[in-house]
Amino acid sequence: MYTTELQKSASVASTEDADKLAAFEARVAADEFIEPKDWMPEAYRRTLVRQISQHAHSEIVGMLPEGNWITRAPSLRRKAILLAKVQDEAGHGLYLYSAAETLGTSREEMIEALHSGKAKYSTIFNYPTLTWADIGAIGWLVDGAAIMNQVPLQRTSYGPYARAMVRVCKEESFHQRQGYEIMMHLAAGTDAQKRMAQDALNRWWWPSLMMFGPPDENSPNTAQSMRWRIKRETNDELRQKFVDITVPQADAIGLTVPDPAVKWNEAKGGYDFGEVDWSEFYAVVKGEGPVAKERMAVRRKAWEDGAWIREAADAYAAKQAGKRKAA
Ligand code: FAQ
């Protein structure tokens, strides 16, 4: 009797879930946004928390390579621009953490996952910024790759993530231009400046191509994320678009992409290009990037140094809540 009742309620629950799943999939297929209080499959929620929190961590860790250059930027104008850009990245991190929090994961849990090495952040930020030209290369290539990936995310199926992307993309587009403008000036400067620009392009090109993730055939998450319309274009599609846009930009300022295999392919209407060194990518994902340890040490120290302000904010919030209760 008891078992039969259990079986009955389990089958009612699974019919309900099947109905909810069908309704969810129909909404995704109709390009409706899924909102925080809507029913969603647990795996969809988990995928979003993973992707959005990793995206947020990338923005925050991404402040470090450029932050290192604020005091060394070559003029007041360049300092002011770089300062504004790095602040924008902090803002992007905050929108993204907020979007992930709407899925029921606290910011503390996400930060803990980053600091313990459980959560990832983009491989690109594990490379050092050696010269001023690297700041140009980051804006041009890294922000350029970031926008290529983020523009389609304005139509991702989860509403808060899509809306966060709208503002992020506007700002990233300014970042990309400021980087290209630095490269343009260096490339038109003295021989030493031109060499510095070419050297930065040589070092940042391949890591930028890695930002899009592994090839589609080795990407465990792409197929499901495309079905759920979390991702709107695959890793390889976005990488190809990035190469197609960026190679002519390099040509236009007299720089050369460090890949002898780059060649226009009329039939496909895009450039052919060489194979990324995926062993380097996987090593960097595993935490073996050239400056990975330094990056995480700086992040952990910043979190510890900020403890007093979190405590003060909590104490203030408790005091205000007490006042409201008393009123
Ligand atoms: N780095 O199956 P897939 C920026 C991981 S924002 C590290 O293809 P998925 C702004 C991936 O997580 C840059 N890990 O995964 C800025 C997965 O591991 P998991 C960040 C990577 O999620 C500019 C595994 O490999 N942008 O730069 C990377 O479907 C300048 C298998 O990969 C975003 O996060 C990588 N490059 O596709 C700031 C955009 N690639 O989690 C400062 C949103 C892959 O299963 C200065 N994210 N992995 O353990 C996405 O679009 C996707 O998550 C992808 C990866 C495309 C990154």
Automatic annotation (TrEMBL):
The keyword 4Fe-4S does not apply. Keywords: Oxidoreductase. Pfam families: PaaA_PaaC. GO terms for biological process: phenylacetate catabolic process. One of its GO terms (molecular function) is phenylacetyl-CoA 1,2-epoxidase activity. One of its GO terms (cellular component) is cytosol. The keyword Transport does not apply. Its EC number is 1.14.13.149. This is 1,2-phenylacetyl-CoA epoxidase subunit A. It comes from Allosphingosinicella flava.
